[in-house]
Amino acid sequence: MTLDGKVPSGPIETRWARHRDHLRLISPANKRRYTVIVVGTGLGGGSASATLAQLGYNVLAFCYQDSARRAHSIAAQGGINAAKNYGGDGDSVYRLFYETVKGGDFRSRESNVYRLAELSGNIIDQCVAQGVPFQREYSGELSTRSFGGALVSRTLFCRGQTGQQLLLGCYQAMMRQVSEGSLKVFPKKEMLDLVVVDGEAKGILVRDLTTGEYEAYAADAVVIATGGYASVFNLSTNAVGSNVGAIMRCYKKGALMANPCYTQIHPTCIPFAGWFQSKLILMSESLRNDGRVWVPKKKGDKRPPHEIPESDRDYYLERKYPSYGNLAPRDISSRAAKEACDDGRGVGPSGYAVYLDFRDAIQRHGRKVIEERYGNLFELYEHIMGEDPYAQPMKIYPASHYAMGGLWVDYNLMSNIPGLFVIGEANFSDHGANRLGASALMQGLADGYFVLPYTIGDYLATTQPGKVKPDNQEFKKVKEDDEARVNRLLSIKGSRTVLDFRIELGRLLWENVGMARSEETLTKALEEIPRIREAFWSDLKLTGSEKDLNQQLERAWRLSEALDFAEILTLDARERRESCGAHFRVEHQTPDGEALRNDAEYSYVAAWEYKGEGEKPAMHKEPLTFEVVQPTVRSYK
Amino acid sequence: MAFLSNPIGKKMLMALTGIVLFLFLVAHLLGNTTVFGGQGWINAYAEHIHSAMFAPPLWAARVVLLACLGLHIALGTLLFLENTKAAPTKGTFVTYKEAGLSSRTMFYTGLLILAYLIYHLLHFTFHSVHASISVSAFPPDAQGRPDLFRSIALSFQRPVIAGTYLLAMAVVCLHTFHGVFSSLQTLGLPGKASLPVLKRAGQVLATLLAAGFALVPVAVLTGWINL
Amino acid sequence: MRFHLKVWRQEGPEAPGRFFDYDVDDIIPEMSLLEMLDKLNEELIKKGTPPITFESDCREGICGTCGMVVNGSAHGPQPKTTTCEIRMRHFQDGEAITIEPFRAAVFPVQKDLIVERAGLDKVIQAGGYTSAYTGTHADANAILVPKDDQEYAMDAAACIGCGACVAACPNSSAMLFVAAKIAHLGTLPQGKPEEASRALSMTEAMQEEGFGACSNHFECQAVCPKGIRVETIARLNRAFLKASLKRLA
Ligand SMILES: Cc1cc2nc3c(=O)[nH]c(=O)nc-3n(C[C@H](O)[C@H](O)[C@H](O)COP(=O)(O)OP(=O)(O)OC[C@H]3O[C@@H](n4cnc5c(N)ncnc54)[C@H](O)[C@@H]3O)c2cc1C
Ligand code: HEM
Ligand code: FES
Fold first, then answer.
1. For A273, which of C30, C51, C138 is closest by C-beta distance?
2. A111, A163, B121, C15: which sits with the fewest CB atoms below 10 Å from its CB?
3. Is there a contact between A67 and A129 (Cβ–Cβ < 8 Å)?
4. ipTM over 0.95
5. Is the pLDDT higher at C22 or at A324?
6. Which residues pair with A607 in a beta bridge?
7. Which CATH number fits the domain that encloses residue C33?
8. Strand partners, B20
């Protein structure tokens, strides 16, 4: 298989404009004859369905929550990047592009990233027009802050609820389209499968989560926007319902899975406290603008933080990365925390936490300023931990957070299955091996508001509207398959619960495929995963029935896909014998412990093709070429 | 009509009519205070009110009041029914945090007020209950005016009547304790800072009003006012 | 820690429901209430009993999915907290805790602690948006917004649409929910032009969906996990009045 990314050529500044000018168009009157299914109502799916409906397409949007407004994009706290140069510190489209390519450790497509940077400004204009209440200065102008490894101040934010406000913007735009009749939203319906007819994506099969009924929906194109897969690690910052099911089913129908090993571990989360936990809560990275990260210099120093004198503290990020200090990118900060804790210098009851200290910032700016900047985050922390972060430093630790990998898409955001588009975190497109802070929101909205609405027309123009109906044989077949799979889950009648397996898998991945990976741990994981899967399929215990609201069944289905996915993730991690971005192979590091890339051999996108149950998937490579930014050693010293 | 079919519209009319009724009560209370001036004052006041010169505007006021009362009752009943339908149950173990007895019993206190109102009118206006101690049962006072003072004093000397009036005032207090502020809120008056102040002011006003009315039977019972 | 739980269980919308008693043990104070239920559910499943069905997603107080009445209060007795944020250390060891679903005619129980809240979406559909098309807009800084207005809008925009206000309201009114949206959009220049029609249509939709009217009980404010204040309701009333007068003229 040859992978054609359909990347335009020519000067990078005008690639998108020229490409867009040559996309096929559908006449306004004809648009409503086309039906588009959008799975997911987060920033990606929400913005796409609102925009497509506004353009005149007949749109059907699905989500598993009880309202479109609850997609996990809602939880994003920190902010959204835009190359507006509102900070007046020399920001530009080029600089955002450059930093994103570099931040992704030269494992992303230049053209995609440039387009993203280019559209970043439009997004803000769009959101403001929708009534997103971005933070403002006393002048009435928009505030910006520097965020997550950027040297300029380009992040816009709504207190600590940026994702919420952006998502509500999408949601409200969607609701408007619902009232106009061009959009239908189907909450509490989980996509079980993709339906491919004559090689093209023409519909989905869903299970109604309230009644348990299977329902078939046909369309002229399918857009997947189901978010990331960080939840395969069990404990993550994702929602408890976040899952890899939809993209795995697409994968099993022939879509390629790209770079699954690129998973981001976020450095500032509330530390792990026990296996009873259902998730790990993120503390926005913006805290690192004013908080200083440290651990005691001595191993096993159990003194309370305020009793540890300055001379006994190791501000390790400031020490190791003087120019970025506490703002070093996520992968680097996370790894540094892990190193310190592995070294026995971690704090807290488990020894797996580091301090994030606001003492100096409070002294410098006063409590009031700190309260204004982070009040709600401090409250959240105190709520959960029962400790006052104004009085003593926060304890934080890295947690699984974001998926850079995902379904492979070309420049038009279409997968290798014609008619199947993938947007938002579910695709692999823009972040390479590591995502910079505040750029996922940007990407989701760029995809949904400004890219897909154009590129999908190019595909639709080649197809006959309404070609496939839900009574097509293919729908019947898919339904039979999935029903059989559901019934198989219910008929195991073993002794272990879904959660039991979920924890086992998550723990295995966290320990072996987490922040530091080696040939050995990866091989071990590849041996263990099939064992867990087998145990799952032979010893799972479910209660209840199929035709009912059955949450255990939902989770079992999702976990069954996660088990299959874990294997590709690990395989991809093993095959990529280099360190890049968030993918850290201990065998490949510089003498001072930094990631060591191997551009000569690994400058490609690894796209995996499903070969059938129990078969090893095949890897296809899309070479990455860099015409504008020359790959260099990513240094944050 | 669109205004009235809107839930806020209905409430606004509730609030407006409620305020009119409340203002009437305030005026009524001011009139009542003449009783403390003794027989001469209150009888003069009563005659003054009834004298032909004031009759047309007074009648107009009565019509307005009656209309307000009718609307207030009709809308109150409608809202009560709609709200009960929207909330058949609030669960088994409900703890209220801000809603007090007053706000939760508006409909019932309203009905009690209505009952009291009828009784009160029958008593002092139509003289059909307690006829033996009504104004029409007594000779005019020295100046030839109907002897309202005597009727009041003799009525409230009976503990049952005084008790009924006192209870009724408690009910009025309960109704307006929430009602006064609630109507301001419904009309959109409060802002962030003024809201708690207005709320407290409404409660104080309601209490003062009811206390003012209650003072008369209390004064009679304690012998402060006597014949 | 150990607790005695009384949990509402109901098989379906039509089925009758009742409280079931459960004793849970080995609860760690750091656990959230939902994690305690997770633990209980694990035990129930192992015994072959259907687990307690309840909804949650983000588990960090922002998505608005979770929502139950805990000890008689929507989202539990602690102020400004969602159900998923409740930690067990806030209860006394050995305490009895009752858990039941949100109650309102517009929120029919689907199963155990899950209720249907589509009515809230319908109310937003009636006008809880600005009619801005996706495309090219004026630069985000072209219209200045006074900081105070933006802060006020943000306070109101923090609503997570959980429906606790409706659940707590003795009338099952959604006024706080509507008022928050009106205040959010109406305070910003981008949302101002449509404020009048928005105030009318959203409140009408609220009634049509079967939510009650506001009697100013203010229970909503007491349970709102995001601290949205009833003065937004006064603001909505003003907007409604203005809109009605305008319609009259
Ligand atoms: C805690 C947290 C904080 C973050 N903070 C930031 C930040 O500050 N800045 C930033 O840029 N990024 C941030 N991110 C990342 C960013 O929020 C996400 O990457 C982004 O919002 C993902 O959007 P999405 O639309 O792709 O997916 P989501 O918002 O996750 O939406 C997924 C949608 O798919 C639906 N779905 C999933 N599976 C199915 C199925 N099988 N059937 C039907 N529907 C399905 C869900 O119901 C949901 O509607 C953060 C992420 C987290 C978890
Ligand atoms: C002199 C007598 C009365 C006065 C001064 C009075 C005053 C008020 C006021 C000020 C309100 C507040 C309106 C608002 O919340 O906006 C109110 C509410 C109410 N009144 Fe009265 N009222 C009187 C008699 C009655 C009567 C006779 C009834 C009979 C049913 C009644 C029923 C109600 C009800 C049900 C409400 C609450 C409506 C709601 O909030 O849903 N009232 N009243
Ligand atoms: S689960 Fe999201 S708010 Fe509680």
1. C30
2. C15
3. no
4. yes
5. C22
6. A258, A620
7. 3.10.20.30
8. none
Nearest CA in chain A to C141: A141
Report the alpha-carbon distance of residue C60 to residue A486 in Å, rounded.
30
Residue pair A425/A406 in contact (Cβ under 8 Å)? The answer is: yes
One domain, residues C105 and C156: no
In chain A, where the domains are located: 35-265+402-460, 267-400, 477-622
Query: C133 with C97, same domain?
Result: no
Contact (CB, 8 A) for A511 and A528: no
Does residue B10 line the site of ligand 2, with CB under 6 A? no
User: Which residue segment(s) compose the domain that C40 sits in?
Assistant: 3-111
Overall average pLDDT of the A174-191 stretch:
98
Q: What is the CA radius of gyration of chain B?
A: 20
C102 plus C123 within the same structural domain: no
Domain count of the fold of chain C: 2
User: Which helix (H) or strand (E) element contains residue A283?
Assistant: none
Atom of ligand 3 minimally distant from the CA of C64: 3
Average pLDDT over residues B158-175: 97
CA A406 to chain C, closest CA, distance in angstroms equals 21
Q: Do C121 and C192 have their domain in common?
A: yes
Domain B2-87+105-221 has CATH 3.30.420: no
User: Among residues of chain A, what percentage have pLDDT more than 70?
Assistant: 100
Residue B104, classed as helix, strand or coil, is helix
Indicate if ligand 1 lies below 6 Å from the C-beta of A72: yes
CB C56 within 8 A of CB A358: no
Q: Does A619 touch chain C (CB under 8 A)?
A: no
Q: Which amino acid is at A138?
A: Y
Cβ neighbours of residue A225 closer than 8 Å, sequence gap 6 or more: A38, A39, A40, A41, A42, A44, A45, A48, A422, A423, A424, A426, A444, A447, A448
How big, in percent rounded to 5, are the helix, strand and coil portions of chain B?
80, 0, 20
> Fold for domain A267-400?
Flavocytochrome C3; Chain A, domain 1 (3.90.700)
**Residue that is written with structure tokens 């707590």 in the block:** C168
At the topology level, CATH places domain A477-622 in: Methane Monooxygenase Hydroxylase; Chain G, domain 1 (1.20.58)
pLDDT of residue B77: 97
A426 lines ligand 1 (CB under 6 A): yes
Kindly state whether residues C146 and C163 are assigned to the same domain: yes
Contacts with B149 (C-beta within 8 Å, 6 or more apart), sequence order: B35, B38, B39, B42, B43, B141, B227
Domain ends where: C63, C79, C111? C111
One fold for A267-400 and A477-622:
no
Among A67-81, A366-380, C39-53, the range scoring the smallest mean pLDDT is A366-380
Q: What is the CA radius of gyration of chain A?
A: 24
A469 residue type, one letter? K
CB contact under 8 A, B189 and C234: yes
This model's pTM is above 0.90 = yes
Of C79, C111, C143, which residue sits at a domain end? C111
Rounded Cα gap, residues B126 and A629, in angstroms = 98
Residues C135 and C121 in one domain: yes
Cα distance between residue A84 and residue A125, in whole Å: 10
Instruction: Decide if C219 and B96 are in contact by the 8 Å CB cutoff.
Output: yes
Domain ranges of chain B: 2-87+105-221
Three-point CA angle A423, A429, A432, nearest 5° = 145
Kindly determine whether residue C126 and residue A179, on different chains, have CB atoms separated by under 8 Å. yes
Contacts of A474 (CB under 8 A, 6+ apart): A195, A196, A197, A202, A468
State the distance from the centre of ligand 3 to the C-alpha of C210, rounded, in angstroms: 25
Q: Do residues C9 and C127 both lie within one domain?
A: no
Residues of A recognised as catalytic: 330
The yes-or-no verdict on residue B93 having pLDDT over 90 is: no
Tell me what the pLDDT averaged over chain C comes to: 96
Q: Nearest residue on chain B to C106, judged by CA atoms?
A: B86
